[in-house]
Amino acid sequence: MKHRSYTVRRSIAINAPRELVYPLLADFRSWRQWSPWDGRDANLKRSFSGSARGEGAVYAWAGNRLAGTGRMEITDAKPSHYLRIAFDSEGLHTGSCTTSFALAAHDDTCTVTWIVVGKRTMRLPFTNRVERNIGAELDQGLATLKRVAEWDS
């Protein structure tokens, strides 16, 4: 087995100001509204610690085989502009990665770019599956984030 790194990047334009979009990303409690992974286990156990939002906020979960267990911590944040999150999980997506969100304002529109960078021990074909599978999940999450943010604006 070889260690391979991967990067998956997706973007979406949201018809809402970034000041409205950013809190949906910076507060892990808001992720239930848009996260592509939240609906995998109706009995998911969630815990929140550290800061309420932004740098230092921590979210941990434990669930069924599809949800797995894991922890996310916002390690760097520039309000309304940028978030970096350390992500560790076991289950369907076992591994560690860094996920980040960059927000760019254009009048009353916000472009959100979601980037996932990781390194896993894997067989060679895995890299293509990461792009396809994780990319589809990021697309789904961003589309839902767009609906939630535009509904609120």
TrEMBL record:
InterPro entries: Polyketide_cyclase/dehydratase, START-like_dom_sf. Pfam families: Polyketide_cyc2. This is SRPBCC family protein. The lineage of its organism: Bacteria, Bacillati, Actinomycetota, Actinomycetes, Mycobacteriales.
